[in-house]
Design a protein that fits this description.
By secondary structure, this protein is α/β, with parallel strands linked by helices. The chain has 14 helices and ten strands.
Amino acid sequence: MMKEKYEEFPYRIRTCVWEITLACCFSCKYCGSGGGKARENELTLSECLRVASELADAGCRRVSLIGGEVFMRPDWPEIVHALTSRNVKTCIITNGFKMTPKIVSEIKRLNVESVAVSIDGPEEVHDACRQAGSYKRALETVETLTRENVPVSVISALRSDNAPLLPKFYETLKNYKIFAWQIQACSPMGNALKNGVEIGFDAEKVLKFVKEHEKDGFFRIGVADNIGYYTEEEGSVRGVPGFKFRGCGAGLVGIGIDSIGNVRGCESMYDRRFIEGNLRERSLIDIWTDPDAFAYNRKFRENMLTGNCKNCKFGDECAGGCRSYDFFTTGRLYENPLCPTGKKRAAT
């Protein structure tokens, strides 16, 4: 009955970001999830295998595994196998510090689609937020994986300190055989909020940087959804030619799961008020098909936009950008502070 209900439901799960542990070898100054120690009572292996089965049954096409640090959980290969054996494309996001030949071998054996290595920028900013030597280890991981023909991308979270260094870091990345570089915004949540990390940067300059280098041919370069602005350049700045941001997909096509089984529309919506249910208490499909769940997106209407997003000509397409970044920077869900279009309109 539940499966039939899901098949008739207007929203289908296509992507999932799944935090399988909060344990990490770092406790980065800006970590949004406050990683470091594993949570008490994280999902057991048998529970994770059940979740993997539920994701596959729901037709989820791609799962991104995150931490903490994924490789700090000893049974990560079993969790990956439960996904890839069901034809769910699986990628892993890592800081690269724990990479070993055995892990590389497992990544290849398990048909992991790709590995994304988080690198903040040049050595001076990367190591300052993590620990001395972490930058070199991250690049060694990139080099090792690409040499073993594992598809590798790099993710950089922008803040006040590293955004101006994008051109310098780009010159370094050009020497590595990565397939993509994703640039995203650091949100003031978790450790970033606790440590008072300066997150502000000029999104318009970032947009210009991406436009200047999108056709260089070294690798795909693009901005993530949480940078959230919407301009005439949509279709060329997201890293995939022709792709346009069509509003936040949390609870519409995407879902987030944390290490104790809480379900959110997006794993970046790291606040208890966005928890829709727990997988120890309810099935994934039951949570997803709840008519009152994910209301911030499922019941969104253009007249809910506020601030500079209100009356924007792109309002029906952008829908105010990334819900998580909106909430943690403005306290509101439908107003994006990084939008150059809105800022220009407000200035006139």
